[in-house]
Amino acid sequence: TAQGYVEQSLALSRRLHYDYGIARAMQILGNLAYDQDKISEARDYFLESLTRYRALGDQVGIGTMLLNLGSACSVLGDKETAHIYQQECLSISRAIGHKGLISTTSRALGLHALAHNQFDQARSYAEESLKITLALGDRSNSGFALLLLGDIAHAQGQVTQALSYYLQNLEIMVAINYR
Questions:
Q1: Chain segment 66-109, per-residue pLDDT in tens
Q2: What is d(CA 27, CA 45) in angstroms, rounded to the nearest whole number?
Q3: Distance (Å, rounded) from C-alpha 113 to C-alpha 56?
Q4: Are 20 and 58 in contact (CB under 8 A)?
Q5: What is the mean pLDDT of residues 128-150?
Q6: How far apart are CA 95 and CA 59, in angstroms?
Q7: Could you give the C-alpha distances from 116 to 31, 102, 109, in angstroms and in order?
Q8: Whole-number pLDDT of residue 179
Q9: What is the DSSP string of the chain?
Q10: Which residue, 82, 131, 136, is CA-closest to 108?
Q11: Distance between CA 143 and CA 172 in Å, rounded?
């Protein structure tokens, strides 16, 4: 199984004291746990991976783990801790110019702002995400940003605008055969 191979890689990396290999294996094990709805376990893997990436100074690894931790904490109901991780991820992502992380984290922060009825902030994050994904040609994530913009408009009673965003999202998802 994939997990078995990653565990072997982790054991070898530990034996060789190869911190990057340990961090990466923990990240992958966290992703596998998350995909199996073992969110607490995933969070623990992500935390250990984050510690390793911080020790290595790997900014992309740090940002990725902060984003993953934000997702895990959000699913576990700890929205405020999720928000802290997401804000730190956005700060690091902007500092290193990582457009993919900026876009995804902006969308997550937009969802948080929407949940707190901070509509202007939510829209700003969603628009930033959409702008980046369009520039990158990332149609799937452009669709998700449009969906968020639709949710924001809907929450503000702007039904026509919300419908426009939802239809744009639907067109993209059908075109890319999103499942």
A1: 999 999 999 999 999 999 999 999 999 999 999 999 999 999 99
A2: 6
A3: 32
A4: yes
A5: 97
A6: 9
A7: 28, 21, 11
A8: 83
A9: -HHHHHHHHHHHHHHTT-HHHHHHHHHHHHHHHHHTT-HHHHHHHHHHHHHHHHHHT-HHHHHHHHHHHHHHHHHTT-HHHHHHHHHHHHHHHHHHT-HHHHHHHHHHHHHHHHHTT-HHHHHHHHHHHHHHHHHHT-HHHHHHHHHHHHHHHHHTT-HHHHHHHHHHHHHHHHHTT--
A10: 82
A11: 6
pLDDT at position 34 over 90: yes
Tokens standing for residue 110 = 């937009």
Tokens 């990725």 -> residue: 64
Per the structure block, which two tokens stand in for 79? 């929205």
- Find tokens 């948080």 and name the residue: 112
Residue 84 zone, left/alpha/beta (φ > 0; ψ -120 to 50; rest) = alpha
Please state, rounded to an integer, the average pLDDT across all residues of the chain: 97
140 contacts: CB under 8 Å, gap ≥ 6? 172, 173, 176, 178
Closest CA to 84 of 54, 112, 51, 56: 112
